[in-house]
Design a protein that fits this description.
Elements (H helix, E strand, L loop, with lengths): L2 E9 L2 E10 L4 E7 L4 H14 L3 E11 L2 E2 L2 E3 L1 H18 L6 H5 L5 E3 L2 H10 L6 H54 L1 H17 L6 H14 L3 H18 L6 H21 L3 H21 L4
Parallel strand pairs: 3-4
Antiparallel strand pairs: 1-2, 2-4, 4-5, 6-7
């Protein structure tokens, strides 16, 4: 199922912005983008997302800022001082103006990127205000919660639409199943008439054992009987209806029921002895294929 959500939260000196996008997928496919994070923070995000989402391709974009500086960016003051001194000496020897700040920052080793946790710990070790990993996690968790909440609202709205569509298709299958049951009820008599007509034509030429004929008619009718398949099909359709209205994740169970419904339709079609039943089966398979496509979008 598709959806989007954004959350923004702050804790101590850390500000977190989280965007969550989800599109249809048979399983959970999670990708993290944005500010480099420690393994512990990545695991925390993945755990919370997987608790909320069971099917879907999910992209979580994270932006963390400490104070007014983007998290993941650090300026090495000692390296900057060394680079500036070297550039000043070079400028003096060449008799040209000294370097500006942009030139100093552009030199390798002055501006570095890294994981937010490491930078926050360094800030605390130097005697400054330490936001620390706990503050990062708190801000990140709050922002992620907001984003997942908005995502869930969109997915619920989409789910209501899908539920209405699935109910319509299941109702169509139920109607077709009822039609097949009525047609199948007359199949034994139809087969008996067909065989009797053939036997009468043959009896004019050769002798026929009437008892054997009756036995063959009974066997023929038994092979064409679809009562068991119709009973199982009715059960599967009732379960599908109940699942569509059930809370929680039902996509995989619906997917299984779609396979079972298809199996029963195939068996009925294989046993079919009338054009009417065959035509009904073709229509039912078309409706089931639409259900199958929609079920792939259901969590």
């Amino acid at each position: 199922m598709t959806g989007y959500g954004r959350g923004v939260a702050s804790h101590d000196d850390v500000r977190a912005t989280v965007d969550v996008r989800a599109v249809n997928h048979r399983f959970v496919d999670l990708k993290l983008r944005g500010t480099p994070l420690s393994a512990a923070l990545e695991d925390a995000i993945a755990t919370r997302v997987r608790r909320k989402i069971e099917r879907g391709s999910v992209v979580v974009s994270v932006k963390l800022v400490r104070g007014n500086a983007p998290a993941g960016v650090r300026i090495d003051g000692d390296a900057a001082a060394r680079v500036h001194r070297m550039l000043v000496e070079l400028a003096a020897r060449l008799a040209i103006p000294g370097p500006d700040l942009a030139l100093v920052l552009a030199q390798p080793g002055v501006v570095t990127t890294g994981e937010l946790d490491d930078q926050l710990d360094d800030a605390g070790a130097g005697g400054g205000p330490a936001a620390g990993p706990a503050a990062t996690l708190a801000a990140l968790d709050a922002a992620l919660g907001q984003a997942l909440g908005q995502l869930d609202e969109m997915r619920l709205a989409e789910g209501a639409t899908l539920a209405a569509e699935l109910h319509a298709r299941v109702d169509e299958l139920v109607a077709t199943r009822t039609q097949i049951a009525v047609l199948a009820a007359g199949v034994p008599q139809l087969l008996a008439r067909r065989l009797s007509d053939r036997v009468k034509r043959l009896a004019e030429e050769v002798g026929v054992d009437q008892a054997r004929i009756a036995q063959e008619i009974a066997l023929y009718a038994d092979r064409a009987d679809v009562t068991e398949e119709l009973v199982r099909l009715a059960s599967h359709l009732d379960q599908a209806r109940a699942l569509i209205d059930s809370p929680g994740a039902v996509g995989r169970r619906l997917d299984f029921l779609v396979q079972e419904i298809g199996r029963e339709l195939n068996t009925i079609g294989a046993k079919s002895t009338t054009a009417e039943i065959t035509t009904a089966i073709v229509g039912a398979k078309a409706a089931l294929e639409k259900v199958r496509e929609q079920v792939q979008n259901v969590e």
